[in-house]
Amino acid sequence: MGITIQNITGNTAVVIWPKMASCVDSFYSIMYHPNWNSMPSSYSRKSFQKEERVPTSRSSFVVENLTPLTRYLMCVTCQSANPSSDQCRVFNTLERDPASASNTKKELALGIWLTSSILLLIIAAILLYGCLHLLCCRRHQRLQAQSRTSKQDYGEAWTKSVAYTSEEFSRQRQQMQDTEEKHPSGIQLATIIENPSACNEPVMPTSKSQERVPVAQQCSVIN
């Protein structure tokens, strides 16, 4: 069949085959299996570890994800046929390609970096949520404390106002009582001035004063 294997590396190989006029199927089957030391005359398709299918319009295929330093058996046949010895080739892969190893390391590093970044973002989001929640709780507590303080201040002010009013009223009342005790005649005179008819009635002496104010003099003063 004239199958050839080219561009062999540690992980890839290119298989080339001529078009088969006798193949009436729509696909070619490319089968390969690692660690084959001999090539039997015929074998079953189930014996191969991997199988790829390509359209019959193509005559080459790049096999990837091979294992470095490994002996492979590769066969190309029609889609429904079992391969024979003239449709197979044995080849060995090379050491790992430095560029491939570098790419693998870069991919690994990129994966680790992405994972770390996602974890850091999650942790930052959790911390931010916790800080905002704590700030909201403290603000709510502060507003409640201010409200309680305002109510207490208002209550104290109202109590002081009531107490001051009561004390002022008591003081004024005491002053009036003291004035009545010290100047009873003055109060009587004021009463007469406000009520002139009181001149017709005699003024009786108070219990605390032996002096008597003549009615005539009072009336004359009024007149």
From TrEMBL:
<feature type="transmembrane region" description="Helical">
    <location>
        <begin position="110"/>
        <end position="132"/>
    </location>
</feature>
<protein>
    <submittedName>
        <fullName>FNDC9 protein</fullName>
    </submittedName>
</protein>
<dbReference type="InterPro" id="IPR013783">
    <property type="entry name" value="Ig-like_fold"/>
</dbReference>
<keyword id="KW-0812">Transmembrane</keyword>
<dbReference type="InterPro" id="IPR003961">
    <property type="entry name" value="FN3_dom"/>
</dbReference>
<keyword id="KW-1133">Transmembrane helix</keyword>
<dbReference type="InterPro" id="IPR036116">
    <property type="entry name" value="FN3_sf"/>
</dbReference>
<keyword id="KW-0472">Membrane</keyword>
<feature type="domain" description="Fibronectin type-III">
    <location>
        <begin position="1"/>
        <end position="96"/>
    </location>
</feature>
